[in-house]
């Protein structure tokens, strides 16, 4: 049985417990960088003391990504074998690319090295870099979401030059060039990066970044 904690209202992203204390239930995700359990949305905490599970009962049912959803996000950090992503919303590609829905605050996502969609690479920083805006596919059904860049439509759609900050221009399948300083950088580039059909408000998207 679940027992709601009276007056214990939490907001999206709020720390509600440590991973050692409880198992994450519905409406709760693990912050992979800190190990804390955080709330996915506005609601009240509920605890199953028998199974040591903590959940958040939402005041409002939120739309969340499903397995095989296509999401747009920003790369927050790149480690040796994993890429961390802030997910902003779900994209529909057909019949033309558009937002299906956006989130009020970013969700957590991660891409492990065998899901980058490139057979040979020396460094994950040749695939994406922090700050890149990417399209990716969801390969599980819970937060934090496991993502994949396998497939030509998945990868970087927007990137800024690491030297001067100018918007980079795709040159071919794996290179971006800065029109201002001439800097060339490697990436795993989406084939929609230059598509006029993909109309995303990049300034709004970047401002959503925590």
UniProtKB/TrEMBL annotation:
Keywords recorded for this protein, A-Z: Cytoplasm, Exosome, Metal-binding, Zinc
**Residues involved in Zn(2+) binding:** 161, 164, 178, 181
Q: Does the keyword Zinc apply?
A: yes
One example of a Gene Ontology biological process annotation: RNA processing
Subcellular location(s): the record lists: Cytoplasm
Per the record, GO CC terms? cytoplasm; exosome (RNase complex)
Residue ranges annotated for the Exosome complex component N-terminal domain, each copy included: 9-48
Q: Which GO terms describe its molecular function?
A: zinc ion binding
What's the short name of a Pfam family annotated to this entry?
A: ECR1_N
Chief location of this protein within or outside the cell: cytoplasm
What protein family does this chain belong to? Belongs to the CSL4 family.
Q: What is the role of this chain?
A: Non-catalytic component of the exosome, which is a complex involved in RNA degradation. Increases the RNA binding and the efficiency of RNA degradation. Helpful for the interaction of the exosome with A-poor RNAs.
Assembly and binders:
Component of the archaeal exosome complex. Forms a trimer of Rrp4 and/or Csl4 subunits. The trimer associates with an hexameric ring-like arrangement composed of 3 Rrp41-Rrp42 heterodimers. Interacts with DnaG.
The entry's protein name is Exosome complex component Csl4
* Organism phylogeny: Archaea, Thermoproteota, Thermoprotei, Acidilobales, Caldisphaeraceae
């Amino acid at each position: 049985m679940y027992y709601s904690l009276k007056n214990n209202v939490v907001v999206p992203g709020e720390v509600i417990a440590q991973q050692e204390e409880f198992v994450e239930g519905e409406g709760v995700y693990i912050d992979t960088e800190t190990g804390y359990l955080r709330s996915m949305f506005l609601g009240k905490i509920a605890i199953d003391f028998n199974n040591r599970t903590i959940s958040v009962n939402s005041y409002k049912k939120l739309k969340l990504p499903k397995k095989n959803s296509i999401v747009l996000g920003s790369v927050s950090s790149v480690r040796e074998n994993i890429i961390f992503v802030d997910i902003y919303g779900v994209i529909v590609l057909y019949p033309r690319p558009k937002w299906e829905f956006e989130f009020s605050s970013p969700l957590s996502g991660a891409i492990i090295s065998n899901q980058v969609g490139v057979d040979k690479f020396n460094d994950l920083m040749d695939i994406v870099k922090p700050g890149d805006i990417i399209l990716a596919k969801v390969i599980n059904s819970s937060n934090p979401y496991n993502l994949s860049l396998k497939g030509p439509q998945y990868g970087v759609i927007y990137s800024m030059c690491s030297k001067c900050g100018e918007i980079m221009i795709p040159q071919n399948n794996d290179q971006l060039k800065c029109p201002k300083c001439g800097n060339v950088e490697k990436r795993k580039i989406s084939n929609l990066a230059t598509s006029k059909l993909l109309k995303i408000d990049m300034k709004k998207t970047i401002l959503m970044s925590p």
